[in-house]
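Per your request, structure below.
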């Protein structure tokens, strides 16, 4: 190695060490006002968690200790954690019992846990246990799993549910590292959003480490009879034993997605990217927990047609996990960027036509959402004001799809080359930090718009309702052909299966969602008899078809039974809320409620809260 090379290596090493230290430092951070957390991090803030817990399936509780390294920023005499429906047994300060108190209870926020400290306090330890009201955790009986032999548990922390299973400063702007010791029954494996085991331990005890700072909503735990199978040396899958091979086949292109993502916006920062497929009650398509994405089994279609969700969760490794919304009012900074990034990954792997189809479906979702908020247009702003509301209220298509259209329009105006340089620099310069909308707009002005002398209606996009008129128009020749096929079927009352034999899931979804408003049950029967949509094993196709069946009173091929079976089996909130909403909007609320009373016990609290509200259910 020559002298020049040695100097370069030394300089690079120093830079990497500096980056590692900076990404985990809280020095000099000024936290913004956070309406969804009781924490006062500018006074005293947690920096590292050591979690030591036992998981009891017999009692359905998690109990143990949460110990925090803390920084006292202002000679504070107390530190405040967020809790909800936890039993706080005692608290220690630097190893000695200390006084604490729980404040008044709020239905959404829970209670503040106020702990006495001194200016010299370095560590606090909370002894606690969960209760039967813990919303983040779902305990599943063996019969609620695929293999039906062992129980299962998983947590879901986003947006503010981590406080229901760990006492913590539950704000996205507070980033921590963590270690954990988790003890579970010997027949089961535990995995977390951290460094994970690949095989079961002999004694049921597992050790975890998350070396990079993450926000509390990304704390995640799953426990079940699961197995691991690698896809590449840095990607792999966990699943129940009987579906490991199917999941592995479905997600076999994870490494290709990683390579495509890194080529766009820089090196993956989390070392490992694994996916665990959970039981059907998991409420989301996927959840981007660092190192271990949680995913719904509804993605397993057998043809890789729904793997854009995996691309989406991978993209979150940059937009969301690496650069995080500072508050839930800024949620679009996570999701809008991620939908855009997902679209670029899909284009890199499968071509522009597939990406355009996904983009057009997103635009259709956005238009429907805007119409749905016509009586509350403020909900269609990108930057929200959720003070006094549950942050889940902001998790709509607006954040995802209006955010995506905002960035897609910016790309069109700036040019893809300039926009990619801008985004890559944005992720790298703000890595392991949080972002507010105002701060992002300033960065956008300085590093893209002013730099290239561009004019853009940023404030209209961010602070005004609806979709601005300059939104980029996405076109698809394939979707035009789908529209022609649908028109011919309606006009001739005939359907030819050979015409659709090579259709992608996206084409089917577009076909079904664009049925004319006056389509008759007889016309739907022609379509169903030709394409057997009622019995589709593709969950997305089935969901949109069932929605149309409910709306248009189609009763053929025993579809009512299939809809009920789907709603009882599947807990993915987007899918089930779409169908229950169709019941409600069609004047069939009682019919929907009858099914919901059977299905409700199978849903996670995230889904239950949404459907209770939608159907005005009083349970």
């Amino acid at each position: 190695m020559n002298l020049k090379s040695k100097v370069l290596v030394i300089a690079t090493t120093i830079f990497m060490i500096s980056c590692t230290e900076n990404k985990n430092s809280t020095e000099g951070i000024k936290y913004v006002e956070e309406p969804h957390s009781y924490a006062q991090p500018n006074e005293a803030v947690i920096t590292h968690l050591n979690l030591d817990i036992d998981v009891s399936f017999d009692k359905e509780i998690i109990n143990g200790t949460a110990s925090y390294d803390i920084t006292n920023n202002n000679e504070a005499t107390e530190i405040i954690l967020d809790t909800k429906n936890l039993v706080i047994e005692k608290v220690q300060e630097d190893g000695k019992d200390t006084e604490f108190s729980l404040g008044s209870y709020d239905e959404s926020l829970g209670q503040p846990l106020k702990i006495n400290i001194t200016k010299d306090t370095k560590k606090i330890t909370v002894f606690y246990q969960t209760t039967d009201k813990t919303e983040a955790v779902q305990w599943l009986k063996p019969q609620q799993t695929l293999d039906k032999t062992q129980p299962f548990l998983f947590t879901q922390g986003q947006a503010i549910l981590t406080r229901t299973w760990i006492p913590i400063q539950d704000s996205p702007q507070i980033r921590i590292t963590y270690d954990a010791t988790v003890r579970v029954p010997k027949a089961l494996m535990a995995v977390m959003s951290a460094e994970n085991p690949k095989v079961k331990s002999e004694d049921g005890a597992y050790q975890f480490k998350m070396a990079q700072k993450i926000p509390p909503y990304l704390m995640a735990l799953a426990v079940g009879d699961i197995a691991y199978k690698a896809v590449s040396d840095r990607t792999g899958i966990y699943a129940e034993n009987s579906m490991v091979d199917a999941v592995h086949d479905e997600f076999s292109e994870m490494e290709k997605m990683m390579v495509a993502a890194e080529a766009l916006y820089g090196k993956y920062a989390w070392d490992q990217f694994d996916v665990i497929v959970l039981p059907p009650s998991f409420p989301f398509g996927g959840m981007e927990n660092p190192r271990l994405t949680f995913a719904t089994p509804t993605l397993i279609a057998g043809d890789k047609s729904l793997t854009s969700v995996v691309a989406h969760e991978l993209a979150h490794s940059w937009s969301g996990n690496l650069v995080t919304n500072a508050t839930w009012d800024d949620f679009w900074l996570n999701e809008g960027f991620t939908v855009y990034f997902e679209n670029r990954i899909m284009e890199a792997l499968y071509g522009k036509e597939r990406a355009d189809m996904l983009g057009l479906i997103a635009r259709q979702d956005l238009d429907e959402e805007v119409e749905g908020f016509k009586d509350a247009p403020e909900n269609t702003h990108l930057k929200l004001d959720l003070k006094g509301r549950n942050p889940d209220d902001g998790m709509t298509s607006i954040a995802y799809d209006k955010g995506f259209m905002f960035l897609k329009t910016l790309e069109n105006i700036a040019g893809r080359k300039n926009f990619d340089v801008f985004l890559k620099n944005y992720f790298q310069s703000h890595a392991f930090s949080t972002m507010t909308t105002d701060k992002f707009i300033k960065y956008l002005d300085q590093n893209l718009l002013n730099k290239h002398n561009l004019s853009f209606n940023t404030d209209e996009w961010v602070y005004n309702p609806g979709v601005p008129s300059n939104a980029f128009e996405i076109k698809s020749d394939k979707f035009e052909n789908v529209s022609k096929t649908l028109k011919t079927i309606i006009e001739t009352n005939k359907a030819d299966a050979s015409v659709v034999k090579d259709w992608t899931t996206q084409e089917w979804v577009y076909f079904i969602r664009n049925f004319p408003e006056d389509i008759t049950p007889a016309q739907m029967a022609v379509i169903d008899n030709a394409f057997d949509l009622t019995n589709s094993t593709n969950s997305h196709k089935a969901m949109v078809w069932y929605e149309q069946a409910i709306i248009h009173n189609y009763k053929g091929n025993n579809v009512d039974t299939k809809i009920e079976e789907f709603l009882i089996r599947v807990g993915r909130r987007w899918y089930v809320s779409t169908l229950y909403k169709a019941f409600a909007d069609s004047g069939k609320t009682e019919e929907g409620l009858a099914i919901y009373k059977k299905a409700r016990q199978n849903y996670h609290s995230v889904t239950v809260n949404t459907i209770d509200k939608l159907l005005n259910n009083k349970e």
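The chain has four domains: 1-224, 225-317, 323-463, 478-615.

Regards,
D.
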